[in-house]
Amino acid sequence: MKIALISDLHANREAFSAVLEHAQNAQVDDYALLGDFVGYGGDPSWVVDRVRELVAQGAVAVMGNHDLATVKGQAPSMREEAREAVAWTHGQLRPDQLEFLAQLPLSVTQQDRLFVHANAFAPGGWEYIQGRLEAMRSLQATECRYTFCGHMHEPMLYHLSGTGKAGEFTPAAGTAIPLLPNRQWLAIPGSCGQPRDGNPAACYAIFDSERSELAFQRVPYDIESAAARIRAAGLPERLAQRLSEGQ
Question: pTM here?
Answer without folding.
Answer: 0.96
